[in-house]
Amino acid sequence: MKIIDTHCDVLFKIQQSRRNVLTKEVIQFKDSSKLDSNLTRIKKGNINVQFFAIFILTEVPVEEKWQHALEQIDIFYTEILGNHPEIKHIRKWEDIGNLKEDEIGAVLTLEGADAFGNDLRKLRLLYQLGVLSIGLTWNHANLCADGIGESRGAGLTDFGKEVVHLNNEYGVLTDVSHLSVKAFWDVLDIAKYPIASHSNAYTLCNHPRNLRDEQIKALFEKDAMVHVVFWPPFINHNRTAATINDLVKHIDYLCSLGGVSNIGFGSDFDGISSFVTNLEDASKYQNLINELLKHFTEEEVKGFAYQNFIDHYVLT
Asked: What Pfam families does the annotation carry (predicted)?
């Protein structure tokens, strides 16, 4: 069964390998064992569309963040797209529907508005370069909002609201996965295209990065998607291990809140340090599908895997 995965950190990992002058080991996207989502594994897992996040470490000096973002965008264009003709850049959602049988779609996203600071010209350039989804924060605060790890817990700034309005204008998703609770509600008030690209249910695992029931229900009421994430600490509280069945429990719980048509996958491969057993990299995706088919109808599983996303963003 084909898959749409809305979050991985391949660009960041390749960039870090290029910047590590001590080892001088450059990770290759095609088949590096250091990548959870290398091309070989993506093909084996039958991933039809992979989202690639631009992510910048908090400790990178402010004046260098834009350069870091450009480096990852260059990797996307040269290493991901340029070296592999079977990978097609998804520049608008309708492009997904035009993929041929042997082609894989690649979506460029941004995790944290730190990259463009307070410069909307840079943001508009990111749109022009093909960014289709923007998470305003990682876990900390920036000029748009507080992230979930910021103790202040503030919501959107006026500038952050302006960014969301621009996302609306350009048809770009606003990702709520890392936002503070208050910023989440601020986004939901004004975003036309909200999404949680990689989050689980707080009720089952009370990690602050997970979504509370009222947040999940509000997303579903706006007909927005919630994509489950594969990192064990987001699946089982205070644990670094999880089974596929543990992850299935989150999907089942989201269904119980009314989300059977609003669930997808956002693995966070290459951004996580421990793994679900038998779901250690992108090549193992069909193990998840096989387990889901024991609990849900084939039509429902197809929805989780790819059709829900297509119904929401490609066919609208």
From this structure: Peptidase_M19
